[in-house]
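**User:** I keep going back and forth on a fold encoding question. It is easy to fool oneself when nobody else works the same problem. Could you pick a protein and write out its sequence and tokenised fold? Could you put it straight underneath, so I can go through it closely?

**Assistant:**
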Amino acid sequence: MLGSRWTCSASVGTRSGPRGRPRPGHRLVSPFDSVDGQDLAISSKVGYFAGTARHAYHPAQMRAQLATTLDNLGTDYLDIYFLHSSDFGPDDRYLPDAVDLMSKWRSQGVIRAVGMRAPHQFAEEWATADGPEGAETRRWLYLFDRVRPDVVTARYNLISRLYGDHETDIFRFARRNGVGILIKQVFGKGLLLQSGSGPDQRQYSAADHRSTDPAFTPDHRHRVDARLAPLRDRYGHSTSAMVRLCVQYALHHAPDAAILAGFRNANQIDAIIAALDHPLLADDITQIRAVLHGNPYTD
């Protein structure tokens, strides 16, 4: 369903600063006015911002946020609407109403599909384990069973962990349950697109969320740069070469998925589109995994 169309995630709001968190409630110029709607899959999310309500999943807040989102985007429906958070209040107080509202909107055609966010790391078998990993897996499986989403978002990129044949990762799980996959962070929030003159040394202001993100510390950026160096030497040091590597690595693992790719300008969009025409070979995947993971396992 998702592989044949562009997928655009719409954050309703303005930025508080460079790469800062959105401020919901401000009108945006719709990016879809000049595009044929048949070529787009428009998604948004709920559960992150509570406004003045008692909880982000309070029914009144959910209704108000959807109405605002549709108005700001100049559309009367969303292809996918995601339940962004797993926090449904004490004892999941707001979970039944949230599930009912999403089902109602889907039956009315206001949303075409219900989405959920998958854990960053997931194997179904972990649900039987003790400790935080097992608890998180059991919690997500419980919510999946209650929500019964049509689509899940999953983080996957060059440095994502590999899973063994005995493990049911999120991609295998989704296929078995007939659920679509939308892959996010294929560029690792931009860290995987460093183009070859050494690690990124930029400093971030306090208003920029990257200033508190462990992934953007100088030490972590240096480690990522060192891991990618052999791949840049083989495939190219340009940003477009790394875009192709990131996009095709993800699609090789999940050819039936769609990618939610971030961009800042038209040149970056062109690079992403161009990457779709240059798939990686099985030998490339083997080499990439040997370099990054010390493991030549291929799908």
In short: Residues 49 and 207 are 18 Å apart (CA to CA).
